[in-house]
Amino acid sequence: MAQKICIVGTGYVGLTTGICLAFLGHEVTCVDVDQAKISALHAGDVPIYEPHLRELMALAAENLSFTTSYADGVADADVVFIAVNTPTAADGSPDLRYLRAAAQSIGETLGDRFTVVVNKSTVPIGSGNWVGAIVRDFFEATHPGTPGNFQLASNPEFLREGTAIGDTLYADRVVVGSDDPRALEVLSNVYRPILDQTFTPPAFLPRPENFGVVPLVSTDLASAELIKYAANSFLALKISYINEIAQLAERVGADIAQVALGTGLDTRIGRRFLGAGIGWGGSCFGKDTAALITTAREYKLDMPIVAAARETNQRQRELVVEKLLEELRIIKGCTIGILGLAFKPDTDDLRDAPAIDIAQRLISRGARVRLHDPVAMGRLAREFPELADCLRDEPAEVVTGADAVVLATEWAQYRQLDWKALAPLMRSPILLDGRHTLDRQRLTAAGFRYIAVAAWNPPR
Ligand SMILES: NC(=O)C1=CN([C@@H]2O[C@H](COP(=O)(O)OP(=O)(O)OC[C@H]3O[C@@H](n4cnc5c(N)ncnc54)[C@H](O)[C@@H]3O)[C@@H](O)[C@H]2O)C=CC1
Ligand SMILES: O=C(O)[C@H]1O[C@H](OP(=O)(O)OP(=O)(O)OC[C@H]2O[C@@H](n3ccc(=O)[nH]c3=O)[C@H](O)[C@@H]2O)[C@H](O)[C@@H](O)[C@@H]1O
User: Would the CB of 17 count as within 6 Å of ligand 2?
Assistant: First the structure.
């Protein structure tokens, strides 16, 4: 049954969720404090780069509205999802100021019908109760004498940027947590079309073959909150583990791609997230592993495995500099190109992108750096103005006259480049593949000295 839904925060998670739920037939109002974003959405523009989101928004248009007014979205909603950003504060703990502000505004604008207020943002364990208390305080302050008619729930999000719609419509699972059975019932109804796969898939994103129903994990508030951190930290440590093995593979002359394949085909281990290279970036793995460690510390617990995964990830970035030093001897004065800036392909997100970190490390050593990305360059110029002069419109401009090129993000378009034509343009044709994504033989035949991070590299 269609429900009235309000989404607070229209970023990667809020916008994708809002559009998908509207596509499934719910009546969705998206609220954001950023007037520019709301104006863009009114004009039919999607303010982030996410494949197919604009097309799905057009399909869902009659069920979707966008506003900066909480009253318009919250007052008669059955469900209010909070999807605001929860970045890391200086001490490693999550910065909850946006969450607090959202909870206050929801409390002030809730109506009298039963509403489930849902944390979709990744929030520290215990935040559900904290948000509930804020909503209640502000509801009571603005509605004296009226008892609040709402319940709190947690509904952690597992989508990945770049594949956000598929991850939502064809999810591995849906997790909902609440200490109130009625709230759990409402949420399971919201997700019913996904759980039972009763919707007609959009033409541009067919249902994967043999895709069955989606399991629902219905649990208490604290368990749902911990599931999110446990999942992200496990994925992060899986990547760090293969990167650690890759270091050993390099020393013993083993091929890490084969090692990952032979290991991952064991279904208990699984092949995914065993891609060795310069390590993870993005807004969540770093933030969520830090938050897990901080929360555990509050309970006098150490998380040595998670802490080690973070250290390994930092080391992978420094390895790029070490590899270039091995090749070039002196980096100062060299020109180094970086292809790929977003933290992964198919997104324009630059949060904790390894490429930016690597560019800054190289610049601090005196290198001249040139940068290219298929979609994230406008964003880089806005968010890192100090690097704007390094941007080049075409990969060929990055490569021309360079002493080395680093492939930092495995965009498909880089695999399709005419590398044979690019090699002669370089001062020295060294290509450092940070993602193990190009074919060594093809690149060598094209005239490159092809090296990879943490992989066996032939001696010079
Ligand atoms: N980006 C991702 O792939 C995933 C993110 N998450 C979690 O979801 C949450 C949101 O992440 P993103 O969507 O990436 O963030 P984002 O930064 O892309 O979007 C957050 C949005 O919230 C808005 N906002 C901030 N304060 C507000 C307020 N008081 N009222 C209304 N709107 C407000 C901002 O203007 C922005 O549009 C975070 O907790 C994140 O950890 C979870 C899974 C995946
Ligand atoms: O909480 C979140 O924000 C999300 O974080 C990740 O999603 P995302 O960060 O969008 O992207 P991933 O595909 O997980 O990639 C993260 C980073 O790990 C790197 N990675 C990934 C896989 C791999 O094998 N090796 C590897 O280095 C990617 O290049 C990227 O920098 C999780 O995969 C999502 O389930 C989760 O919802």
Answer: no
Cα of 156 vs centre of ligand 2, distance in Å, is 15
The pLDDT assigned to 172 comes to 98
Q: Amino acid identity, residue 44? A: G
Which residues of the chain register pLDDT less than 70? 455-460
* pLDDT confidence of residue 375: 97
Tokens of 178: 């609440």
C-alpha 331 to ligand 2 mean position (Å)? 31
Q: What local confidence, expressed as pLDDT, does residue 457 receive?
A: 63
Does 11 sit in the ligand 1 pocket, CB within 6 Å? yes
For 357-377, the pLDDT digits (tens) are 999 999 999 999 999 999 999
Q: Write out pLDDT tens, residues 118-135.
A: 999 998 888 889 999 999
Cα 87 to ligand 1 centre (Å): 9
Q: Is 239 in the pocket of ligand 2 (CB under 6 A)?
A: yes
- Whether 160 has a binding-site annotation, put simply, is yes
Pocket mutation for ligand 2, best pick of 123, 284, 347 (most atoms within 8 Å of C-beta): 284
- Active-site residues: which are they? 284
Classified as helix, coil or strand, 331 is coil
* Cβ contact 455:316 at 8 Å: no
Helix, strand, or coil here: 333?
Answer: coil
Taken in order of first residue, the domains within the chain and their CATH numbers are: 4-218 (3.40.50.720), 308-452 (3.40.50.720)
pTM score:
0.95
Report the run of H or E that residue 29 belongs to, with start and end.
Answer: strand 27-31
Collapsing DSSP to helix, strand or coil, 6 comes out as strand
